[in-house]
Amino acid sequence: MEKKLFLSFVFLVISFVTAASHNVPAIFSFGDSLFDAGNNHFNRNCTVQADFPPYGQNFFHHPTGRFTNGRTVVDFISQLLNIDIQKPYLEAEMEIFNGSRKDYPSNGLNFASAGSGVLNETNKNMGVMAIQDQLRLFINLIKQDRIDKNLVQQSMFFIESGSNDIFNYFLPVIDIKPDPEAFVQDMLVEVQKLVDEIYKLGARRIALFSLGPVGCVPARVNLPEAPISKCYGKMNKIVKRYNAGLESLVKDMPIKYPGTIGVYGAIYNIVQLLRAKPGRYGFTNTSGACCGDGTLGGIAQCGTQNYTMCENPNKFLFWDYFHPTEHSYKLIAKDLWSGKRSRIRPYNLKDLANIALRS
C-alpha cells in the first residue's frame, strides 16, 4: 500500500512539473533568418525574401516568409510549450492598423529579420531590420503599454544572430577588415546592449543561442577562399570565438541581472553532432542544399533561377544555400527543449520554463 502511495506521489510530482513547464505564456524572438517568421515579407523595402515557392511547402503548404520548407526552431518550441506560433511583428502591426485585430497577440511576437546581424550596418542596404531596430520596436510597444509587463516577465526571450555578420566578413568586396578578435568583440557588445535593454523592460527568462557552423553552409562555395569538399575552417574559428563570448554573457547573467535565468543553447555542437552521425538522424546529405543551384546547391537561392530540388527534404541537413530543413530544426529544437548540458546549459528550455522566478 505504501509503495502504491509513493508511486502515486511520484506521478503527481511528474505531472505537476510537466504541466508547470507549460506556464510560459509567450516567446519574444530577436534575430535573423533562422528565426524570422515572415517579417521581411511585410517589409516592402526589404529585398531578402523567402515568400515564394517552394518555401513552406512541407508544413504550411504555402510560403510564409520562413527560410525553410516548414517550421523553425521557435515554432517547434512554441508547440512544445502548448502556445500558438508567434506572428511576425510587422504582420500583427498591419492587422492592428487595418482594424482586423485590436491588440498585439498574448503569445508573444517574432521580431527577427532575415539577412540582419548584430552589427547595425550588416546588409542594411537590403532593407533588413538590424537587431537594434528589432529592439526599438519592442521598446515602443512597452512604452505604449501595448504589451502587459507581467506577460513580459513570465515569457521566454530568444536571441540568435551573427551568422550574416561573420559570413559578410569573408566577402571579397570588403577591402578593409578589422582584426577578427576586435570584430567579434564589436558583435558581443551589441548583444550585451540588447540583453541590458530587455532586462530593464522586464525580461527574466533569456536564451542566447550560439551560431551553427556557418563555415559549413552550401553558400560558402561563393567565397573564393572557401573549400568545397569540407567546411571553411577559418570562418568556423571566428564563429566559435563569438559563441564562447555568448556563453560568457550567460554565465555573467545571475550577477549582472539579478532575478534573471539565462541559458546558452549550443546549436554549433548540436549541428556538428548531426553532421558526424547523419544516419542516426535520418540524413543522407549533410553538405549540399535540398533546393538550390550549382555546386552543393549553394550558388543561387532556392526558388530562383534554374533551381533543382531533392525528392525528400527530410534526408537533407540544409534546405537551401544557407538554412536548415524543417527536419533539422525539429532535431535542434528537441535538444534545446530537453537536451543535456552538452546541448544547452545550465538548464534546457523545458527546465527554464518550469523554474519559479524570484520576485
TrEMBL record:
Gene Ontology terms for molecular function: lipase activity
Signal peptide range: 1-21
Superkingdom, natural source: Eukaryota
Family annotation (Gene3D superfamilies): SGNH hydrolase
InterPro entries assigned: GDSL, GLIP1-5/GLL25, SGNH_hydro_sf, SGNH_plant_lipase-like
Record's keyword terms, sorted: Signal
Signal keyword on record: yes
Keyword Oxidoreductase found: no
Protein family membership: Belongs to the 'GDSL' lipolytic enzyme family.
Entry protein name: GDSL esterase/lipase
